[in-house]
Amino acid sequence: MYEHLKEKVAIVTGSASGIGESVAVRFGQEKMKVVVNYRSKQEDASKVVKKIQEHGGEAIAIQADISKEEDVKRLVEAAHTSFGTLDVMVNNAGIQSEVSSHEMSLDEWNKVISVNLSGTFLCCREAISYMLKHGVKGSIINMSSVHDIIPWPHFVHYASSKGGIKMMTETLALEYAPKGIRVNAIGPGAINTPINAEKFSDPGVKAGVEKLIPMGYIAEAEEIASVAAWLASNESKYVTGITLYADGGMTLYPSFQAGKG
Known about the structure:
About 45% of the residues are buried. The strands form 2 sheets. Strands 3-2-1-4-5-6-9 form a 7-stranded parallel sheet, sandwiched between helices. A two-stranded parallel ribbon has the order 7-8. The protein has one domain: 3-Layer(aba) Sandwich (Rossmann fold). It is built from 8 helices and 9 strands. β2, α2 and β3 form a beta-alpha-beta unit. About 45% of the residues lie in helices and about 15% in strands.
């Protein structure tokens, strides 16, 4: 736990479930004040708020579609109105769909890019603008993926969005480091979340995924939340512009693990 995170204010987008929920709850454990963002699942977001409060943190739930500029502005304003500042922005909200690239419509492409890439940009822009205006030396954490460097057939829109997030993170980190604003990303590997529940319920599929992970297991969302807490804390105050891969070694070319090749 990081004592200096107590009472810091954070927004976590897409935090009604999955990795976002775990990050928000971990921030609650750190006694932070958290804006829980959801797009459509108000009931789930309310449950996350309750969990945060049970851990000693404070929280509110705010509906916002991060692909919409006015919604993002309203989200940041909610943090200021409710808690007085914004110290940490976690851009977690994202979507994916499986479509063969040659059959992918422009609408399907734009749908994923508008949330994952444009939405992350809007959240970064508004958080940075707020921090500059109010003199906050804050931390921005973008949720990327191992697929910002590992190609993923049938998910070209998703992989492209995550590759964009990687360069966006590095560019913003370089631009705003002199202002004391840190921008980093997390690249999760295979994580046991609701979006993957059906896939991992098949023992054969699960075993196949585990073979791609040198550490041999699929992580829980709480393990990503621990990385987010470190990046939000002063323990990482000299760290900016990185993508921290929390992937059990998935990006280390696991097919070469036996020394072949």
